[in-house]
Design a protein that fits this description.
Blueprint lengths: L1 H36 L7 H4 L4 H4 L10 E8 L5 E10 L2 E14 L4 E10 L19 E8 L24 E3 L11 E11 L18 H34 L1
Parallel strand pairs: 2-6, 4-7
Antiparallel strand pairs: 1-3, 1-5, 2-3, 3-4, 5-7
């Protein structure tokens, strides 16, 4: 019975380790695809306004992390400040706001959320919002396509309530609120802005490189294989070596 249990346990842990290696290989392939997409021409308004673009977004492997250059007008009244978001500054991590504003894409009725950048919060008055320059002109926003604006962990039901008292959708939120844009169509993705649309906009954009989680899967694989080896060692020691030493 002990031998059967040991064999089953080793088989399970070894198979879990092999599964993690397969996941790591898949993530490595995904990282290579993302790197290849970075060499492709940036998507523009024509691509985002194409009638079949929304259907194509269902497969992230065709557009995730691809560069885009979009022209449109900011919907400043919907700007939100996402609370407790980190940014690496001069080698140290600080916590502040991610600023997100929807952009009405020029030449269409489509809207896309832009994760514009990071800004420091006022620690003397935590309800005070940073002042951002606003323009009604058409702007050109450069960035990378991502599946959604940054999300932080929240308790169930937290998405419906702002992090501080506000009127309307703008203000301080834990995560992006659900907003209706009337007849405008919201694209099921977002744009991570990588360069300012004006000369100076006071927002920082030291975004971390895309992490596909390869190292995490390698770590899990090592743990499962180590556990498998430990089970073999324990079985050999307690069932084979130790009994012989006692009888000798």
């Amino acid at each position: 019975m002990i031998l059967i249990a040991a064999v089953i346990s080793v088989a399970i842990t070894a198979s879990l380790g092999a599964w993690q290696l397969r996941r790591a290989a898949f993530k490595e392939q995904l990282a290579a695809q993302i790197s290849q997409r970075d060499q492709l021409p940036a998507l523009d308004n024509t691509a985002l306004n194409a009638s079949n673009f929304v259907a194509a977004t269902r497969d992230e492997n065709t557009w995730l992390q691809r560069r885009a250059r979009v022209q449109g007008r900011w919907l400043h009244e919907y700007t939100v400040f996402l609370d407790n978001r980190p940014m690496q500054i001069a080698g140290s991590q600080r916590v502040g706001f991610y600023v997100a504003t929807p952009l009405a894409i020029e030449g269409s009725n489509r809207v896309v959320w832009i994760q514009r950048g990071w800004t420091q919060r006022d620690f003397q008055d935590r309800s005070k919002l940073p002042e951002l320059a606003q323009t009604a002109d058409v702007v050109t926003v450069q960035g990378r396509l991502i599946s959604q604006v940054s999300r932080a962990y929240e308790m169930q039901g937290g998405a419906s309530a702002p992090a501080s008292a506000t009127t309307g959708p703008s203000g301080i939120w834990q995560n992006l609120p659900v907003v209706s844009f009337g007849s405008k169509e919201l694209l099921p993705l977002a744009l991570l802005q990588t360069a300012p649309e004006v000369e100076k906009d006071s927002l920082l954009r030291e975004w971390p490189a895309p992490d596909t989680g390869v190292a995490k899967h390698h770590g899990y694989a090592f743990q499962w294989f180590a556990l498998s080896a430990l089970l073999v060692i324990l079985y050999v020691w307690f069932q084979l070596i130790s009994p012989r030493r006692k009888t000798s």
